[in-house]
Automatic annotation (TrEMBL), chain A:
<dbReference type="InterPro" id="IPR003593">
    <property type="entry name" value="AAA+_ATPase"/>
</dbReference>
<comment type="similarity">
    <text>Belongs to the ABC transporter superfamily.</text>
</comment>
<dbReference type="Pfam" id="PF00005">
    <property type="entry name" value="ABC_tran"/>
</dbReference>
<keyword id="KW-0067">ATP-binding</keyword>
<keyword id="KW-0547">Nucleotide-binding</keyword>
<keyword id="KW-0813">Transport</keyword>
<dbReference type="GO" id="GO:0015833">
    <property type="term" value="P:peptide transport"/>
</dbReference>
<dbReference type="GO" id="GO:0005886">
    <property type="term" value="C:plasma membrane"/>
</dbReference>
<dbReference type="InterPro" id="IPR013563">
    <property type="entry name" value="Oligopep_ABC_C"/>
</dbReference>
From TrEMBL, chain B:
<dbReference type="InterPro" id="IPR017871">
    <property type="entry name" value="ABC_transporter-like_CS"/>
</dbReference>
<dbReference type="Pfam" id="PF08352">
    <property type="entry name" value="oligo_HPY"/>
</dbReference>
<dbReference type="InterPro" id="IPR003439">
    <property type="entry name" value="ABC_transporter-like_ATP-bd"/>
</dbReference>
<dbReference type="Pfam" id="PF00005">
    <property type="entry name" value="ABC_tran"/>
</dbReference>
<keyword id="KW-0547">Nucleotide-binding</keyword>
<dbReference type="InterPro" id="IPR050319">
    <property type="entry name" value="ABC_transp_ATP-bind"/>
</dbReference>
<comment type="similarity">
    <text>Belongs to the ABC transporter superfamily.</text>
</comment>
<keyword id="KW-0378">Hydrolase</keyword>
<keyword id="KW-0813">Transport</keyword>
C-alpha cells in the first residue's frame, strides 16, 4: 500500500504509524529448477481494528507474504531478500530469532486453513490451548486449564468444561476452526492473520465462523489480515482489499469502490468471471490463459499475456502502483481505461 | 416423496419444453452403510444413512443441480447413479429399465450412456498414462464405439472439442494445469458419447479465474451434444448459473426441489433459506440490506439422525409436530394451486416463502 507511508517515520512509535506496515517485501524460493520469485515488492498496511483482505489465486504469493510477516517461512528454500516488515514500530526482519519468537503468538497470531492438520492429534485441546499460557505466561497447569476453558467459552464452543478433554478429531470442522481461533486469541494479540480460515468449511458453518471472527475483532480492536480467494467473503467483512497477482499487489482499494469500479483488468476479470447467486447470467466472462509460472514470470506486467488491454508497453515496462485516488492504487498502465470502460456494459444489470 | 413428476408450470428456462419424458427416474433411493463392531464376528451396530429415500427425475438436455453441505449424501447419490455403489433399496430407471438390477452385458451398455466427471483432477487421472491413453481407454472397454484404427483421430478430436491442443496427445497429466486436467477428465467422460454426465464438484478444486472457463466449456458441450447433466456442488452460485432445476439435500434427503428461479428467489424450506442467506455475495452494498440467517450447531450425524424432520435440531421454526411427524417432499398445502413460483416441492410442515437473495436488478 503506497498510501500513508509518508505519514509515519520509519521507526515511528506504536501510536503514530499503522499497526503493521509491510514495505517492498521480496521473497524467493531457491529450488532445484531455479529461483521462484514468489513475492515481488509487496506493500500493505493494517491499522488496529481494521480488516485487510488479501485476495489472490493459488501461487499469487498471498500466503507466502503472511508467512514472512509471521516469520514462519520455510527457510531454505524460502528467503526474504529485501524489504521491511514494521510491526508496532519495529522492523521484524532486524530482530533476533528469540525476539521474533516472543512476538509470534503473543503480539501477532495466525489462523490456518486446515484445522485438522494444524492441531496436534495426540494432545487434547485443553492441553494445546493451555500450552499458550504455560509457555508464554509461565502459568501453572491448573491456571492454564482454567484459562483454556474460558477461551473455549469465548469462541462459543458449547459445554466447554466437558469438551476440554476431547481430541481434535472428535470435533467437527467448524468446532476445530473455533479451537484454532481460540488458540490465536489466547494471548490477546494485536494482529491476527487468517489464511483461508473458512475455505474448508460448509457455507452455513462458514457464516458462523466469520461472524465469530468479526465479533472478536471488534471486541479486542485487533488488526485482521484475511487471506482468501473468495470475493464473496471479502465483500462481507473487509474494510480494504489488496489484490495480488504473481507476487505483486496489482490493486488496493477500500472495499466499496473495488466492486463497483475495479481499476485493474485482473480484478475486473475476476469480478466478471464469478457466477452470482442473485443473478442468472448467460455465459460467464472467462479470463483466458493461466496464472504464470513463478519461475518464469513474463517481462513487463505479469498479467499481460492474459490481459485484454495489453499493448507493447505492457510487455516491456513493469507498471508501478499508480495512485488512482486518495485511497486507491492500481498497477496497470491503462487504469484510466479500465475505470472508464467499466461504466458501459459487463457486470450488473 | 412418492409424488409423480408434477406437471410444472411452463418454464421459460427449459431448453426443450416438448421433450418432457424423463431420461432418468430415481425412486426412493436408499443407501445405508453398515456400522460394524468386532473383528472376527462382525455384528452390525447401526447404519450411516447416507441417502435415505431420494426421488427425482432428470430430463433430456437439462441440468439438474444438487446442492448441500458435506455429508448430506450428494456424492453417494452420484455413485449410486453410476452403479459404483449398490443401493440398499430403491430404483434408478433409465430408459424404462431399473439399472440397479442389471449386471453383465446389459449393465455395460447402460454405463456407456452415463459417464462421470470427478472433483479432483489431480487424483482422477492416472499419472503413468498419457493423455491419449486416458481419453482412449473407454474405447478399449467399448470397442464398438471406435474401431482400432480410428482411435487416435477420435482422441484428438476430443481434445480439440474441450479446447486443448490435439498435439498434446502424448503428454502426461502432470504436464497440465488443474483447469487443463479437468478438461481432460471431461474429454474422457465424452469419449463414449454418453447421454448423461454426472459431475461431482467439477470446478471446486480450480482457481477462480479458471472455474469460469470450465463452466463455459460444460455449457457449450451440453448444447453441442444434447447432454443431460447432474451437477453436484456445494457452491450455490455456480449451481444457479448452470442449472435448470435445483435440488437441495440435507442429511440424506432432498428437502426442496424446483426450477432454479423457484429455489433461489422463492425458497420455502427453512434450510434452503438459511443456506442461501449464508452465501457471501461479492457486493459490499448487499452487506447492509441482506438478512443473514446464521444456523446454530452442526449437521447431526447421519448414523443417528433426528426423528421426524431431520433439520429440526437447527431450525428456528421447529415445533412438537416436527419431532414426531416427518414432513414429506411435496407441494406444501399453503401453496397448492397458487400457480406461483412458491408452488414447488418442499419438505416442511411450516413452509413459508421468504426472499433471502436480493432480487435481480
Amino acid at each position: 500500500m503506497a498510501t500513508s507511508v509518508e505519514l509515519s517515520t520509519e521507526e515511528g512509535g506504536t501510536d503514530g504509524g499503522p499497526l503493521l506496515d509491510v514495505r517492498n517485501l521480496h521473497v524467493e524460493f531457491r529450488t532445484r529448477e531455479g529461483v521462484a520469485r514468489a513475492v515481488n515488492g509487496v506493500e500493505y498496511s493494517v491499522d488496529a481494528g481494521e480488516t485487510l483482505a488479501v485476495l489472490g489465486e493459488s501461487g499469487s504469493g498471498k500466503s507466502v507474504t503472511a508467512q514472512a510477516i509471521m516469520g514462519i517461512l520455510d527457510s531454505p528454500p524460502g528467503f526474504v531478500t529485501q524489504g521491511k516488515i514494521i510491526f508496532q514500530g519495529r522492523d521484524q526482519l532486524k530482530l533476533s530469532t528469540e525476539e521474533r519468537r516472543k512476538v509470534r503468538g503473543a503480539r501477532m497470531a495466525m489462523i490456518f486453513q486446515d484445522a485438522l492438520s494444524s492441531l496436534n492429534p495426540v494432545l487434547n485441546v485443553g492441553e494445546q490451548l493451555g500450552e499458550m499460557f504455560t509457555v508464554h505466561r509461565g502459568m501453572s497447569r491448573k491456571q492454564a486449564r482454567a484459562k483454556a476453558i474460558e477461551l473455549m467459552e469465548r469462541v462459543r464452543i458449547p459445554a466447554a468444561k466437558e469438551r476440554i478433554k476431547s481430541y481434535p478429531h472428535q470435533f467437527s470442522g467448524g468446532m476445530r476452526q473455533r479451537v484454532m481461533i481460540a488458540m490465536a486469541m489466547a494471548l490477546e494479540p494485536e494482529l491476527i492473520i487468517a489464511d483461508e480460515p473458512t475455505t474448508a468449511l460448509d457455507v452455513t458453518v462458514q457464516a458462523q465462523v466469520m461472524d465469530l471472527l468479526a465479533d472478536l475483532q471488534r471486541e479486542y480492536n485487533m488488526g485482521l489480515i484475511l487471506i482468501t480467494h473468495d470475493l464473496g467473503v471479502v465483500a462481507d467483512v473487509a474494510d480494504k482489499i489488496a489484490v495480488m497477482y504473481a507476487g505483486r499487489i496489482v490493486e488496493t482499494s477500500p472495499v466499496h469502490d473495488i466492486y463497483a469500479k475495479p481499476a485493474h483488468p485482473y480484478t475486473k476479470g475476476l469480478l466478471d468471471s464469478i457466477p452470482r447467486l442473485d443473478q442468472k447470467g448467460q455465459e460467464l466472462y472467462a479470463i483466458k490463459g493461466l496464472p504464470p509460472n513463478l519461475l518464469h514470470i513474463p517481462p513487463g506486467c505479469a498479467f499481460n499475456p492474459r490481459c485484454p488491454l495489453a499493448r507493447d508497453v505492457c510487455r516491456t515496462d513493469v507498471p508501478p502502483l499508480y495512485r488512482v485516488s486518495q485511497e486507491r492504487a492500481s498497477a496497470c498502465h491503462f487504469w484510466k481505461e479500465v475505470l472508464g470502460d467499466d461504466s458501459a456494459p459487463a457486470d450488473d444489470a | 416423496m412418492t409424488t409423480a413428476p408434477r406437471p410444472t408450470t411452463p418454464e421459460p428456462s427449459d431448453p426443450k419444453p416438448a421433450a418432457r419424458e424423463p431420461i432418468l427416474q430415481v425412486r426412493k433411493l436408499v443407501k445405508h452403510f453398515p456400522l460394524t463392531q468386532g473383528i472376527v464376528f462382525k455384528r452390525q451396530v447401526g447404519a450411516v444413512q447416507a441417502v435415505d429415500g431420494v426421488s427425482f427425475d432428470l430430463f433430456p438436455g437439462e441440468t439438474l443441480g444438487i446442492v448441500g453441505e458435506s455429508g448430506c449424501g450428494k456424492s453417494t447419490v452420484a455413485k449410486l447413479l453410476m452403479n459404483l455403489e449398490e443401493p440398499t433399496s430403491g430404483e434408478i430407471i433409465y430408459r424404462g429399465e431399473d439399472i440397479t438390477k442389471l449386471s453383465g452385458r446389459a449393465l455395460k451398455t447402460v454405463r456407456r450412456n452415463i459417464q462421470m466427471v470427478f472433483q479432483d483432477p489431480y487424483t482422477s487421472l492416472n499419472p503413468r498414462m498419457t493423455v491419449g491413453d486416458i481419453i482412449g481407454e473407454p474405447f478399449d472397454i467399448h470397442p464398438d464405439v471406435a474401431p482400432k484404427g480410428e482411435r487416435r483421430k477420435r482422441v484428438q478430436d476430443l481434445l480439440d472439442v474441450v479446447g486443448l491442443n490435439p498435439e498434446y496427445i502424448n503428454r502426461y497429466p502432470h504436464q497440465f494445469s488443474g483447469g487443463q486436467r479437468q478438461r481432460i477428465g471431461i474429454a474422457r467422460g465424452l469419449a463414449l458419447r454418453p447421454e448423461i454426465i454426472v459431475a461431482d464438484e467439477p470446478v471446486s478444486a480450480l482457481d477462480v479465474s479458471v472455474q469460469a472457463q470450465v463452466v463455459n466449456l460444460m455449457e457449450r458441450l451440453q448444447d453441442e451434444f444434447t447432454l443431460s447433466y447432474m451437477f453436484i456442488a456445494h457452491d450455490l452460485s455456480i449451481v444457479r448459473h448452470i442449472s435448470d432445476r435445483v435440488g437441495v439435500m440435507y442429511l440424506g434427503k432432498i428437502v426442496e426441489i424446483g426450477a432454479d428461479e423457484e429455489i433461489y428467489s422463492h425458497p420455502t424450506h427453512p434450510y434452503t433459506q438459511a443456506l442461501l442467506s449464508a452465501v457471501p455475495v461479492p457486493d459490499p452494498q448487499a452487506r447492509e440490506y441482506r438478512e443473514r440467517i446464521i444456523l446454530q450447531g452442526d449437521v447431526p450425524s447421519p448414523a443417528d439422525p433426528p426423528s421426524g424432520c431431520r433439520f429440526r435440531t437447527r431450525c428456528w421454526k421447529a415445533q412438537e409436530r416436527c419431532v414426531v411427524e416427518e414432513p414429506l417432499l411435496a407441494v406444501p398445502e399453503v401453496f397448492r394451486g397458487t400457480a406461483g413460483p412458491a408452488e414447488h416441492d418442499s419438505a416442511c410442515h411450516f413452509a413459508e416463502e421468504k426472499q433471502v437473495v436480493p432480487p435481480e436488478e
